[in-house]
Amino acid sequence: MRVHVVEHPLVAHKISVLRDKTTPSPVFRQLTEELVTLLSYEATRDVRTREVTVETPVATTKGVAFAKPTPLVVPILRAGLGMLEGMMRLLPTAEVGFLGMARNEETLDIITYAERLPDDLSNRQVFVIDPMLATGGTLVESIGYLFEHGADQVTCICLIAAPEGVERLNAAYGDDDRVNLYIAALDEGLDENAYIVPGLGDAGDRLYGLAE
Ligand SMILES: O=P(O)(O)OC[C@H]1O[C@H](OP(=O)(O)OP(=O)(O)O)[C@H](O)[C@@H]1O
Ligand SMILES: O=c1cc[nH]c(=O)[nH]1
Ligand SMILES: [Mg+2]
Hints:
This protein is of the alpha/beta class and 212 residues long. The chain is built from 6 helices and 13 strands. It has a single domain, classed as 3-Layer(aba) Sandwich (Rossmann fold). The strands form 3 sheets. Strands 1, 4, 5, 6, 7, 8, 9, 10 and 11 form a 9-stranded mixed beta sheet that branches. Strands 2-3 form a two-stranded antiparallel ribbon. It is globular, with a radius of gyration of 17 Å. The model has no long low-confidence stretch (mean pLDDT 96).
């Protein structure tokens, strides 16, 4: 597994505004989309392509299109849904599958409450999107599920990660070169409730919860 921290002033600026507790939901949603577009530009460097022929008004030339099967984008509901539009802006012809997972806030166990993916994931490059990587439980569960269903490669895109979560992913997939992780920020750690410090709070609530 390779971990890529995307270092760019635009990313750092948008993350700073996202962290601010006074940033209202509509701005939070907009920034989340913009950030995932910037991160996915990096995370799709190895997306598989095939050669195609293009007729320009002047001549015939060679170009590229996505290889088949097309990439699959999987937002982890709920918070991952806030990243979908920003990702699809760069991969408009990708297929989308859904995993609904929630962390039990007391036990930190992961409950999978929804799954809607193509039946066969063989040879698929899968992009998993979820803003927060905290203990790593959700991502380890998601990646395992996707490999069990035949995925070929899994690239995770998160906005903020805790070292504990990266460590847990490393323990599970450190030697596996089919797994990549792209993040905008690696934070200090987790608090006693397994929230990322400094983090940004509960991403799902800030995207979709009641405005305060
Ligand atoms: O690394 P972990 O410790 O597993 O925590 C990370 C998970 O927690 C959040 O989702 P949450 O369970 O709050 O669900 P939600 O998106 O519906 O709010 C987040 O979006 C991740 O999916
Ligand atoms: O800090 C955290 C940890 C898990 N889930 C979140 O939304 N935020
Ligand atoms: Mg939540």
